[in-house]
Every structure is written in structure tokens, then in C-alpha cells.
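Exercise: predict the fold of this chain.
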Amino acid sequence: MTTCLDDYLKQAAADTDAAMDRFLPAVNELPGTIHAAMRYCVFAGGKRLRPVLCLAAAEACGGKREDALRAACAVELMHTYSLVHDDLPCMDDDDLRRGRPTCHKVYGEGMAVLCGDALLTEAFAVLARSNSVEMIAELASAGGSRKLIGGQVLDLEGEGKSLSLEDLIRIHEAKTAALLTASIRLGAMSADADPEKLAALTKFGHALGLAFQVIDDILDVTQTTENLGKTAGKDAAVEKSTYPALMGLEESRAEAARLTAEALEALEVLGGRRTAEGDCGADVAEGVLKIQNSSFKIQVRPDFEHRGMDVAVTLV
């Protein structure tokens, strides 16, 4: 079965949203303010890239989507918590997220801190019911001081400083690539993937996560606030090192393309192939990973004009 990019993303996002709606406390459950804030942030939109990749990795490794839904929801809840805290005045100090006022602008700073705390806690509560200690440890590692939080620490400490490209990569390996990679690994783990498949998907996730960040940096300097759904030009305003600042715009575009190719090459180790054009039109990088009796198609489309990177992963 083949589906176009938008159809796959829409269905995977809908499945994730429906599951999160079941897992999260209702607004009328006391204390209602915190539950309203959590739902305001979780259901603010977004492409659900991390849960899409989680679900697709599970399917690629012979698993079932429903068996990976808790992991998919957990990574999205952790991701949303990180955005809520990133937007706080003491962090990146942003007023817009996904085209809407950020949590602290609507509910106040104190409630935003608690909202992020609650979303992080809920992520582990959701995943714990999968009864997999290994998967819980995987998510904890991705979100801890050596990765997600550590990346934010390095990011804060790097503001106003001239960082090397090596320093910048270290930040984004921790802050961006780690959780995206964990999303893919968790999906594979839910399907009991063997070590070879897990290693290939890990390399794919690492390269894809860095490519995602390069494109995000490009968009910050080339797009408007209206297009991005968040405040454009924030990196330059706080003198933050970015890929365009260190490499230039065109070199950054080339780096995004290189990382995308590297991501897809990681899948070729397991019998994949790449073509220059996908089912949904031109300019789509495509990789196919054959596992067991199914094929796993990954379409990666860098979008330098609007929303960053579109990724679809389907069974064919």
C-alpha cells in the first residue's frame, strides 16, 4: 500500500491525537487550570513528526501501530513539555508557538512551569503502562541532563558567544537529534527489533535530527513570523550561533541535503534503496528499508519556504 505524504501524516497525527486525548486528564477534572493548560499546549497543532516516526518504525519492524501508540504519545508529551519550558522568559522568551500565544502568555509563568512538569510526568505515566523497562529507560535517557536538558544548558551558555561548528553540532545532537532518534528507537523497540535494525534506525534518526535543526535555523532567517508560527529572527536577536551564521545560507542548505542523504543511506545497510523522485511528486528523497515481508518507505522533503521538513514513512 502506498500513500502520499500528507495523507500519511494526517492519519498518524490523528491516531496520536486521539490516543493523547484519552490519556490526558479532562479539563473538568480538578484542578482544571493545569489540565486546560496541558491540553492547550498539546493540541496546539504541529506536524507530530516524532510520533509519526515512532509509529512508522514500529510498522517497519513488523510491529503493530497500536502497540507503539503509548511510546508515540510519550515522546510527543515530552517534546511539548520542552517547548513550554523553552518559551519561558528565563529561557528563549518567546510569545508565539505554533501560531498561538505561548503557555506562559495565556496561563502565567508559574502555571507554565507546572504545565511542563505535568506533561513530562504524564509522558512517563503513559509509557510505563507499556510494561517495558527498556523503553522507559530509553525515554529517560533522551530527556535527561546528558541529552535534551544538557543541550538546552549548552544552548543557554552559548548565547552571545562565538561557538565553533563542533560546539553547535554538540548542542543540537543533544537538544534536537536525541529525542527524535529516541522516537524512532522506541517504535522499533515496541516491535522487538533486533540489534542490527535498531542500529540502522539509530543512525537514520541521528542524521535526520541534525538535518531538521539545520532547516529550522535556515527558516529562522528566511521566513516571517506568520509563516513559521513562532517569532522569526530570535536566534540573531540573542546572538545565538546557528548553522547559517557559521556556514552561510547556501552551505547550510547543502548541509541539510547531505544529512538527509546520510539518513537514508543508513537504511540502505538493511537492504534499502533510494530514488530521486517519490510517489507524491518531484524533489522527494526516498528510501526503502525492507524488513521481514514488508517494505518501509521514507519520504523526506526539506521545505525551505514554509514549515521545515516533511517526513512520511509508509508501508509499501
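Check your answer against the key: The domain at 5-315 is CATH 1.10.600.10 (Farnesyl Diphosphate Synthase).
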